[in-house]
Design brief:
Low-confidence stretches: none
Order of helices and strands: HHHHHHHHHHHHHHHHH
Distance between the termini: 27 Å
Number of domains: 2
Shape: globular
Number of strands: 0
Radius of gyration: 23 Å
Length: 493
């Protein structure tokens, strides 16, 4: 049991930690973009990056997650031939989708330039960026195989060095070429990431199997089907976020759209690294035992405990430091979203607990349940609660809506997974949930006291107690000092 907890904790911390560093490096890169490119350059960079990233998100048909399931299952059988065959199929599928994405961008470069910038001035830029799409998709393929085989150390190193190289390369291009350096920077960064990822990918022992295109299509069809369901859910999510922004603009004003977007952006950086770690390590482990109800229960409960013990202190910090976050990342004009961010922190507690259970249907290849829960029900409540509560209560209504969304979703997913997959929350996990929620809830309430000094005093005391509580229970399940030493030495190798 201790060994299992150590593995869960180690990989969550390691992958989550590198996400924090990645965010920090991207902030540095953003600072240089602001200095050398100015507001216009930032706008051009964001439009190019957003539109091209949208293509790289959809051109692989969700294989970056759906293929992990097949790779994990093949790896769990310890049948090297089956694993090699699955790896070869995944490699070929990503190669074909890389070509498809690059050709799609090249063919529609003029149309995309007109749609994005209102002119054909950026047609050649999009044409060149087809190279970016090609290498980015191939890199995603390598990362997918490493996730499926749980080569977490390789993922961490390749991701970190790729981001670092991107920052180093971008500075001279932005300095000497200004706005004209954006496209070359994107292409060279994608190429470097591919090379670095390929270096670690080559360390994985594997044998290429000769498979015809017909066999690739026949055996990869299930991956594609699951991936398309994933893309469908993502598309609904994007549409709902768009409709919420449009609705806020029509019911209220554009300023509130900006405030809403800023609050969501800050909160996304806080909890994003934990969600990323769930996809990188937790999901492959869950797939490996997806047919064993007892093991599924054990892994989901373990991961929930680890997530709650790690996330609660961070969410409390988010509540306490929200004014500082706004001052550093934004401007004083955004101070009115302080309470919004605190509500988001409270809602994120339920969001993280829900995510642990939400992966069960995907791991079991239950496409229908996954689409209904993630694609339809969650987004339906998000849209309805956000717009109705904003109509009556403005920004405060959006904050209430965010919290209500994940409380409702948590209750629904708990009941659905219980009925369909015989999942139940263990006694220890329930205890951690209630105690951790009590800590974060009372910190949240403290900021509604009339005296700021009293509010911060109580919040800091509760944060200290929660940190002690989390450390005690984590250390009880594993020797943290010994684990950190091993983690450090492993990363150095």
């Amino acid at each position: 049991m201790e060994k299992s907890y150590k593995s869960t904790f180690k990989n969550t911390v390691a992958f989550g930690g590198i996400q924090i560093i990645t965010i920090f490096l991207n902030l540095i890169k953003g600072k240089f973009i602001a200095i050398y490119l100015g507001p216009v350059g930032i706008g051009v960079n964001n439009l190019l990056l957003t539109s091209v990233n949208l293509i790289t998100t959809f051109n692989d048909f969700g294989l970056d997650l759906s293929a992990v399931r097949d790779l994990s299952e093949a790896n769990e059988t310890e049948n090297q031939n089956k694993t090699n065959r699955t790896i070869t199929i995944v490699e070929k599928l990503f190669f074909y989708t890389a070509i498809f994405g690059a050709l799609f961008l090249a063919i529609f470069s003029s149309l995309l330039s007109e749609f994005t910038f209102g002119s054909s001035d950026y047609t050649f830029s999009y044409l060149l960026l087809s190279i970016f799409v090609f290498f980015t998709t191939l890199t995603k393929g390598q990362q997918t195989v490493m996730r499926g085989l749980r080569k977490i150390n390789f993922i961490i190193k390749s991701g970190f060095y790729g981001t670092l190289a991107g920052v180093i390369v971008s500075i001279p291009f932005y300095y000497f070429l200004g706005v004209d350096g954006i496209v070359p920077t994107m292409i060279i960064t994608a190429l470097i990431s591919f090379i670095l990822s390929g270096y670690y990918y080559s360390k994985i022992p594997k044998i290429k199997i000769q498979i015809s295109n017909k066999e690739v299509w026949r055996e990869g069809k299930q991956m594609m089907k699951l991936g398309i369901m994933l893309i469908f859910s993502i598309l609904i999510g994007i549409l709902v976020r768009y409709l919420i922004s449009v609705g806020i603009g029509k019911i209220g004003n554009i300023k509130d759209v900006g405030l809403y977007s800023a609050a969501m952006s800050i909160s996304g950086q806080y909890v994003g690294f934990i969600l990323a770690s769930l996809g990188a390590d937790y999901f492959p482990r869950l797939v490996a035992v997806s047919q064993n109800t007892k093991e599924v229960n054990r892994i989901v409960n373990e991961q929930t405990e680890i997530v709650l013990l790690l996330a609660t202190p961070l969410l409390i910090i988010m509540i306490i430091t929200s004014p500082i976050l706004i001052k550093v990342l934004l401007t004083k004009e955004f101070y009115e979203i302080i309470d919004f961010i605190r509500f988001i922190a409270l809602g994120s507690f339920f969001q993280l607990a829900s995510y642990c259970m939400g992966y069960i249907s995907f791991a079991k290849n239950d496409r229908k349940t996954y689409v209904i829960m993630e694609g339809l029900i969650g987004n339906f409540f998000n849209l309805v609660l956000s717009l109705i509560l904003y109509y009556f209560y403005g920004l405060f209504g959006l904050a209430i809506g965010y919290l209500a969304l994940y409380v409702i979703y948590f209750i629904i997913i708990l009941n659905v997974t219980g009925k369909l997959y015989d999942f139940s929350i263990h006694k220890d996990s329930s205890q951690f949930f209630y105690v951790s929620f009590a800590f974060i809830f009372f910190v949240f309430l403290s900021f509604y006291l009339p005296n700021d000094y009293l509010a911060y005093g109580i919040a800091l005391i509760l944060f200290g107690l929660n940190a002690i509580y989390s450390y005690h229970h984590l250390n009880k399940r594993m020797d943290l000092e010994d684990l950190f030493i091993k983690l450090k030495s492993k990363f150095k190798r």
